[in-house]
Amino acid sequence: MSASATRREVRREHSRAANRASILDAARRVAARGDARTLSLRAVAAEAGYAPAALYGYFRNKDELLLALAAEDLSALTRALRASSAGNGRLAEAAMAALTLLEHTETLAAAVSALPAQASEAERIFNGRLIAALTALSEASGKPATSRETQADIVLMAASLAGLALLLRSGRLQALGFSAADMIGALSRRFGI
Asked: Is the distance from CB of 133 to CB of 78 less than 8 angstroms?
């Protein structure tokens, strides 16, 4: 391959990545105005300034788009967990950072219904980022997930945080008379951290 052909290929890949990022940004704006579960490719295409059919060059369907959004959110969650805990086993700080992020996004909840019956590249990416987030939570807790029991504890902590985020987003946690800090303290005590 010639140098000019290589440069064209690099430019094409950069352009494709920029277009994909633009579509994901548009999808996030559309989801923020409504419900991520009812996101439509037509609405995303209109928001991004594309013809609806053009989106199929980037995502096979709405579920794949939702999984891509959720994978981005898992990456943000992992970064928040790692930044807040700094590897020092400060679960309360990391959990509060996770709750703050989860409270303002619903793509992770929507992605559960988008997981395909057959394995796909989008699912593989989602799963990899989920594992990274669980690993960051494990590091923040100060309990390395080296045994099946500690792995189960980390999954239970993650499920608790996801449930708390839903209660926070809906206003139900406050209606029950609890604050996020109350629940993080209970979570820390429950897992002996």
From this structure: yes
Helix locations, 49-147, DSSP H:
62-85, 91-103, 107-114, 121-141
% helix / strand / coil in the chain, to the nearest 5? 80, 0, 20
Q: How confident is the model at residue 87 (pLDDT cuts 50, 70, 90)?
A: very low
Domain range summary for the chain, segments of one domain joined by +? 1-59, 61-193
In 3D space, the residue among 165, 4, 9, 189 whose CA is nearest the CA of residue 80 turns out to be 165
- The answer to whether the beta carbons of residues 24 and 72 sit under 8 Å apart is yes
Q: How many CB atoms lie within 10 A of CB 105?
A: 21
Query: Mean pLDDT over all residues of the chain?
Result: 84
Q: Domain 1-59 is in which class?
A: mainly alpha
Q: Are 139 and 88 in contact (CB under 8 A)?
A: no
